[in-house]
Amino acid sequence: MNIANYLTIIEFVVVVMLLLLVTFVFIYMFLIDKRQKRHPVLRNYPVLGRMRYFLENIGPEMRQYFFDNDTEGKPFSRDDYQHIVRSAKYKRDVIGFGSKRDFEQSGYYIRNSMFPKQMEELNMDRETKVKTRKYLLHKERLFAQRKEELVDEETLTYLLKEEDAVVIGEKTRNPFVVKGLIGMSAMSFGALGSNAITALSEGLGIVKGTWMNTGEGGLSKYHLTGGADIIMQIGPGIFGVRDEDGNFDWEELKKKSEIPQIKAFELKLAQGAKIRGGHVDGEKVTPEIAEIRRVKPYKPIDSPNRFHQFGDLPTMFDFIERIRDTTGKPVGIKVVIGSYDEADELAMYIKQSGKGPDFITVDGGEGGTGATYQELADSVGLPIKSALPILDAALHKHGVRDRVKVIASGKLFTPDRVAIALAMGADLVNIARGFMITVGCIQALKCHSNACPVGVATTNPHLQKALVIDEKKYRVVNYVITMREGLFRLAAAAGIDSPVQFERKHIVFKDDKGTVYPLEDIYQSYLKAF
């Protein structure tokens, strides 16, 4: 026999063995499926029924990439996601051919002026520039990566002029002066990994005039690494400012307040997507996280639904006063508005007591979180476009609006959304998931699992390697700059020279029949409801 015959025999044997192996595996799976008692589909349709589970598992990806149209996906549509990515990666926010908005649906619109401002007429800082890096797209390929080039660029930061800067805690020993209207919402180290927090910190530090909120997980070295201004959040678990027994540690608070980057403190009463206390499994409480939060490593952490240190407005205001006296820095609260009554009671007590927070962060129910329950995320707490006017109207009714700055959050990730929030009463705006997308989030919806495939919402060292800090930090810079530039562009279109001048008169609401209502008229209905 020659070599060809031997090869033929070997090929025949290999094919037979593969067929036998496939047959054996099929019979084995058939018997397993037929005998198991958990899944009726598999008992009736052994092996074949497994396709159902396979398709079910890949369903989210199939919908995201193939079946949902550009404006359908939740919580962020493909258009929403790509808008953020284009701004961050390419520093471009232009579109072609026209809007995909459904103009038959009801919604808010920004009133354009018959005589808009020229860009050179805008009142903005034209001197402060920063160096960033952006991608130039040379060719879009079908079966390979895009042909792109990463280039350096020096750009304006589109900061506010000194006279337009927002001052938080004017009467404190150390007021917080902000020259950019957009900052990073509360995201804890632990919920996000060290690479993500570092990239955000360094990017926000480069772009200037903004801030990052630590989240209730405490202050980490990763928050500080980029030199960005910090709002340190304190949640009901008082992580980072507690002693070994879980009591509030005033000496530790004072030490934190002596860090120059910390500009303000925020007491988290509630979060739009998670009106409850938090829980962290013991396996996630690494020694590093335990040290930051001042808890024991590898022990489960439970954060209560509310602070044990106070239980009503008088005791909360006393607690705020003590923090302010101890630190010399502004103190705010983060709330979710659920009714007229609570907003009215809060504003009334600010008036009566002469005390209270220097700022109020109002979080809409559409906000995000690493993990929560469906019933809380969907149905507890009003969305931002309802909550914000209620809070603003209550503060105006009692004559204390000028004493309190308002920060709004809840899917305000584009300039037009921010402009509408400013007109509804916000002084500043927080963004969380928009910033997550800038550092690589692909909406895998695995934030709660510590298995984020792109290394953003995970502390897994292996997964975090996917997130390259030196590249992603510039995406943060570009996103903030395009957002600010867009705000000034909208201000010019509305006939005003700075986005801080957006008022209710600049916004109208159109219903599904085409009837237009000035926001001022809608706002009056809020005042009448008190």
UniProtKB/TrEMBL annotation:
Signal sequence, start to end: none
Entry's Gene Ontology molecular function annotations: glutamate synthase (NADPH) activity
InterPro entries for the chain: Aldolase_TIM (IPR013785), GltB (IPR024188), Glu_synthdom (IPR002932), YerD (IPR027283)
One Pfam family linked to the record: Glu_synthase
Gene3D superfamilies: Aldolase class I
Class of this enzyme: oxidoreductase
Keywords (A to Z) from UniProt: Oxidoreductase
Any one GO BP annotation for this protein: glutamate biosynthetic process
Coiled coil: none
EC number: 1.4.1.13
Domain spans labelled Glutamate synthase: 125-496
Family of this protein: Belongs to the glutamate synthase family.
Protein name: Glutamate synthase [NADPH] large chain
Gene symbol of the encoding locus: gltA
